[in-house]
Amino acid sequence: MTAQLPSKTHSFSTVFLIEMWERFGFYGMQVLMVTYMIKNLGFDDARSNLVWGAASALIYATPAIGGWVGDKLLGTRRSMLIGASVLTLGYLLLWIPNNGGGLLYIALGVIIVGNGLFKSNAGNLVRKIYEGDESRIDSAFTIYYMAVNIGSTFSMLLTPWIRVKISSMYGETWGWHTGFGVCALGLILGLINYAVMRRSLAHIGSQADSHPVRKDYAAGVLAGSIACVLASAFILDHQSVARACVYLAGILILAIFAWLIARSQRGERSGLVAALILCIQTIFFFIFYQQMSTSLNLFAQHNVNLSFDLFGFHLFNWIPEQFQSLNAIWIVLLSPVLVFIYNTLGSRGRDISVAAKFAWGFAAVAAGFFVYGLSARHAINGQVSSWAMVWGYGLYSLGELLVSGLGLAMIARYVPERMGGFMMGAYFVASGISMYLGSMAANFAAMPQGIMDPETSLRIYTGLFTKLGYVGIGCTLIALAMLPLMKKLSSNHEAHATPLPAVHSEEA
């Protein structure tokens, strides 16, 4: 008698839970990182922003390699588990108190490698669980995305609170490092849960999962991972090298895109040009996105009244880092609203094009940054209302759902299947580049050392946010001007090409 395979729901639950704990660890670390470098390591604002920008760029780029390792060398299931274990090691390294950047750079290098192995392979497992079941895959990825937001919201609220509580009892150094340690504990819980439920995934994975790992493959991945950790640490410690890598990667991606368009078949060219236009627009969005952990985080440190009051009644206080959780909270609230709007318009034959969604998304982002900028008019003693952050994040998060959530789906729609693997990787690398550019933009509001006056910092931060609002308007106008061209390109593409299967990004 053949043993009955676990249900798809059981298999999915296993991936869902380890993804939830992995995102708990990652966002718990991210929410503290820039402030930790400034307040505990003594970095200035500019250096902290750029170190985190370089780390973000590498974190976005490595999943392209990790997916290939999972498919061809170690197996998708094994790579996800190894990635989670490596991430745990990275957070454990951050738990160790230190007063210099050396251990920080090594720990971030380990996290970069772990994220590369985990991120793409976890998503691939979900896709493999529901392979051939198109009616359920969209629902599965919607629930999967909820894991991202459950894990990130909880950790972005919890780790700053733990940091403050431990600091009050044992000192600032132990407060920061205990906050990072909680991230490691979260992933340890995820790994324990995976160990208990691992049988549900025994039949899921790539072809490499069904064979013992070859020693030469394992040795190669280990050597490559160690090299990646050391290279990442070197890049993080040398910002001139980081900038050179970012510029070189951008030039290479544009050159390869131009080469693919020039060599493409006539029926493919329209889709590639459309993909390039939308990809560039997505990159601009991630420049705005990076402000959440850099300039907006530091704005909350210096110039936001941490008390939430309503009609004269005090509700509660937040810790400055906790404001970053508003992004995930708003996405949870707005996602079903957008789904309802999309379904309603679709049932009436009035679907909104991807290009139009990009235009609306940039308009929402611009409005969000203008809220931050205009909040200075109502500041008291250099402090703006916490509600300004709530509404600014709400508009910004709406823009995120309309723009960045469509990135990988856009690649799947417009890129020929034979170029799909490269373009997915190029999209992630391009997103990483824009993360670093976002940190460079944040440095226009980097506070000079010794400046403590809130009125001065308020002018500097809100000046940047107002400029970003105008940039958002510019992006909106460009997106609107591109609508006729995008409509023509899309029509030409649909007449000649067969799109890739649907692909869902974490932000979708």
TrEMBL record:
<feature type="transmembrane region" description="Helical">
    <location>
        <begin position="323"/>
        <end position="342"/>
    </location>
</feature>
<dbReference type="InterPro" id="IPR036259">
    <property type="entry name" value="MFS_trans_sf"/>
</dbReference>
<keyword id="KW-0571">Peptide transport</keyword>
<dbReference type="Pfam" id="PF00854">
    <property type="entry name" value="PTR2"/>
</dbReference>
<keyword id="KW-0472">Membrane</keyword>
<feature type="transmembrane region" description="Helical">
    <location>
        <begin position="241"/>
        <end position="260"/>
    </location>
</feature>
<feature type="transmembrane region" description="Helical">
    <location>
        <begin position="20"/>
        <end position="38"/>
    </location>
</feature>
<dbReference type="GO" id="GO:0015333">
    <property type="term" value="F:peptide:proton symporter activity"/>
</dbReference>
<keyword id="KW-1133">Transmembrane helix</keyword>
<feature type="transmembrane region" description="Helical">
    <location>
        <begin position="394"/>
        <end position="415"/>
    </location>
</feature>
<dbReference type="GO" id="GO:0035443">
    <property type="term" value="P:tripeptide transmembrane transport"/>
</dbReference>
<feature type="transmembrane region" description="Helical">
    <location>
        <begin position="103"/>
        <end position="122"/>
    </location>
</feature>
<feature type="transmembrane region" description="Helical">
    <location>
        <begin position="174"/>
        <end position="196"/>
    </location>
</feature>
<dbReference type="GO" id="GO:0005886">
    <property type="term" value="C:plasma membrane"/>
</dbReference>
<feature type="transmembrane region" description="Helical">
    <location>
        <begin position="468"/>
        <end position="486"/>
    </location>
</feature>
<dbReference type="GO" id="GO:0071916">
    <property type="term" value="F:dipeptide transmembrane transporter activity"/>
</dbReference>
<keyword id="KW-1003">Cell membrane</keyword>
<feature type="transmembrane region" description="Helical">
    <location>
        <begin position="272"/>
        <end position="289"/>
    </location>
</feature>
<keyword id="KW-0653">Protein transport</keyword>
<keyword id="KW-0813">Transport</keyword>
<dbReference type="InterPro" id="IPR005279">
    <property type="entry name" value="Dipep/tripep_permease"/>
</dbReference>
<dbReference type="InterPro" id="IPR000109">
    <property type="entry name" value="POT_fam"/>
</dbReference>
<dbReference type="GO" id="GO:0042937">
    <property type="term" value="F:tripeptide transmembrane transporter activity"/>
</dbReference>
<feature type="transmembrane region" description="Helical">
    <location>
        <begin position="217"/>
        <end position="235"/>
    </location>
</feature>
<feature type="transmembrane region" description="Helical">
    <location>
        <begin position="427"/>
        <end position="448"/>
    </location>
</feature>
<feature type="transmembrane region" description="Helical">
    <location>
        <begin position="50"/>
        <end position="69"/>
    </location>
</feature>
<feature type="transmembrane region" description="Helical">
    <location>
        <begin position="354"/>
        <end position="374"/>
    </location>
</feature>
<feature type="transmembrane region" description="Helical">
    <location>
        <begin position="143"/>
        <end position="162"/>
    </location>
</feature>
<keyword id="KW-0812">Transmembrane</keyword>
<feature type="transmembrane region" description="Helical">
    <location>
        <begin position="81"/>
        <end position="97"/>
    </location>
</feature>
<dbReference type="InterPro" id="IPR050171">
    <property type="entry name" value="MFS_Transporters"/>
</dbReference>
<protein>
    <submittedName>
        <fullName>Amino acid/peptide transporter (Peptide:H symporter)</fullName>
    </submittedName>
</protein>
